[in-house]
Design a protein that fits this description.
The complex is a heterodimer of chains A (100) and B (335). Chain A is an all-alpha fold. Chain A is built from four helices and no strands. Helix content of chain A is 59%, strand content 0%. Chain A starts with a helix and ends with a helix. In chain B, 34% of the residues lie in helices and 22% in strands. Classes of the chains: A mainly alpha (100), B alpha/beta (335).
Chain lengths: 100, 335
């Protein structure tokens, strides 16, 4: 049985990320930005643009945490790295740590 | 160790006349408009078009001397703090002395080099010489021509670098002046010495050994940077370094009014600012306007912070950076 709370949170976070990406000028409808979408491989985002988007995500979460560790970890992750799913998992971990 | 009664008397900067925008870079690299701005975050950099390391250094020095209310002949020493030299021999400080019209002055002129950290290292060394009474007024000058060694096939490094110079005149704080240097720290981890390098220019890869000059240049005389490794190394090492630095100088980041970091790249600065938890208002960022000007970047950030009213007399500031080596350096002072 799925954990409804986590499931909802995942959907909410993904929806927020889709919104951030569209606001950042990613020219794709939100429904095409799924969990397996890689920011680097599928959307061609890297270097400064990647941290610019990371900054927008941090602001969307009221700067309660930083995405530095996610960016550093994903540089070593096997492809496809920088997926929205990995970002959702990272954000969930940060939120859980903050509420602990 | 007690704080040293050393004061920054004046600062200056000099840029080549030719500004190169991110759009110019897109055209040069055959990229879609907007690519370089998005990927590097550097919107403008300056490339030389006839200027030399020593001519830019002298221009920045004159500006620093004017800000200090001094003449070039008032200097006791000229210290070159460049990452890249105008030529292998003699040292750049000697060539700057000549460009300042001081070629018969006898003013001691020498270089201190720790690549991008040269200004921090130079200021650390010179502050002790001033505090001990060896010198009264010293010019530190960093002048860089990064564009000469860029690898245009490596977009990551080619789009973040810029040319330029910055200088500072340093002297002993007078009675009643609170300016001082609290301390400095440097750590070098040569396990990272191959992450950032330009192999030619020394004894190991001399052009005399080359049978094909173009192949030699492409292989050894261009700037190489493994950006991902530098990013990771910095992320791992910097927080501990900063902790040890503040423990050594007996202060804390919360007591610092302005952090003046090496302008490695907007991406790297994002990492440092967040990793250390410094608020954006206290973190001087000029890389989008000038790019990474190697050793000139920290004194240029210092000069801009003063010029823009972000750093005032009595404020406490921290110079912070990383350099090829791999080294980390920091210095805490009251302006």
């Amino acid at each position: 049985m799925p954990d409804t709370k986590t499931e909802n949170t995942t959907k909410e976070i993904l929806a927020l990320l889709q919104e951030v990406l569209v606001d950042a000028g990613i020219d794709l409808p939100p429904q095409e930005l799924g969990p397996e979408t890689s920011l680097t491989m599928d959307l061609g985002i890297d270097s400064f643009h990647l941290v610019e988007i990371a900054t927008r995500v941090e602001v969307a979460f009221d700067n309660r945490f930083t995405l530095v560790d996610w960016v550093v970890d994903q540089q070593d992750a096997p492809d496809p790295a920088f997926t929205l799913a990995s970002l959702v998992v990272f954000i969930q971990a940060q939120l859980a740590e903050l509420s602990a | 160790m007690p704080a040293l009664p050393v004061r920054i008397l004046g600062t200056g900067k000099a840029l080549p006349a030719k500004a190169v925008t991110a759009d110019d870079m897109d055209r040069r690299l055959g990229l879609a408009p907007g690519t370089v701005a998005k990927q590097s975050g550097v919107l403008t950099r300056y490339f030389v078009d006839g200027e030399t390391t020593s001519s830019m250094g002298a221009q920045a020095a004159r500006s620093a001397l004017e800000a200090a209310g001094l003449e070039a002949s008032d200097l006791d020493a000229i210290v070159g703090v460049c990452g890249g030299q105008e030529q292998a021999i003699p040292c750049t400080a000697s060539l700057v002395q000549k460009a300042l019209g001081l070629s018969t002055s006898g003013i001691p002129s020498f270089d201190v080099n720790s690549t991008c950290l040269s200004f921090v290292t130079g200021l650390d060394v010179v502050s002790h010489l001033i505090a001990s009474g060896r010198y009264e007024r010293v010019l530190l000058v960093a002048s860089e021509i990064a564009s000469v060694g860029l690898n245009w096939n490596d977009r990551e490094s080619a789009t973040i670098m810029g040319d330029g110079a910055a200088a500072a005149v340093i002297g002993r704080a007078k009675e009643g002046e609170t300016s001082r240097i609290f301390g400095a720290r440097m750590e070098t981890y040569s396990e990272g010495s191959e992450m950032t390098r330009l192999r030619a220019g020394g004894t190991r890869y001399h052009p005399r050994q080359a049978s094909d000059l173009k192949a030699y240049v492409d292989e050894y005389a261009l700037f190489e940077m493994d950006g991902k490794s530098v990013f990771k190394f910095t992320s791992q090492k910097l927080p501990g370094f900063v902790e040890r630095f503040f423990e050594q100088v007996g202060s804390s980041l919360s007591e610092v009014d302005m952090v003046l970091p090496h302008q490695a790249s907007p991406t790297a600065m994002w990492l440092v600012q967040r990793r250390l938890g410094v608020s954006p208002e206290k973190f001087m960022v000029i890389a989008p306007e000038f790019g990474n000007t190697i050793a000139a970047s920290i004194p240029m950030a210092l000069h801009e912070a003063i010029s823009r009213g972000k750093l005032k007399r009595g404020d406490r500031a921290m110079l912070l950076g990383t350099s090829a080596g791999f080294s980390m350096g920091a210095l805490l002072f009251e302006y």
